[in-house]
Task: inverse folding
């Protein structure tokens, strides 16, 4: 579920989605190709490291309205997606 914080004519959106195989669409409601990805974090509770968190922002992109992809395999992970929506009507 996306949360919205108003920033003048823009809005900050936060959503959690289920991870997917590399280069596979992950559905993110209300994201468009005009939006700006700020952060994509991969959360893997089965990871043996202390953080369980990987910054996947550099590997992620908005591929189409309602979808992002990552070049990293995030299957079975929870993904925290934060983006800036430049069109406040969406």
Result:
């Amino acid at each position: 579920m996306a949360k919205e914080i108003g920033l003048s004519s823009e809005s900050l959106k936060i959503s959690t989605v289920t991870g997917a195989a590399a280069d596979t669409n992950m559905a993110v409601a209300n994201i468009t190709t005009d939006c700006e990805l700020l952060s994509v974090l991969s959360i893997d509770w089965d990871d043996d490291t202390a953080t369980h968190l990987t910054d996947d922002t550099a590997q992620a992109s908005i591929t189409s309205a309602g979808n992002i992809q990552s070049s990293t395999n995030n299957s079975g992970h929870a993904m925290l997606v934060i983006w800036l929506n430049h069109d406040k009507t969406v």
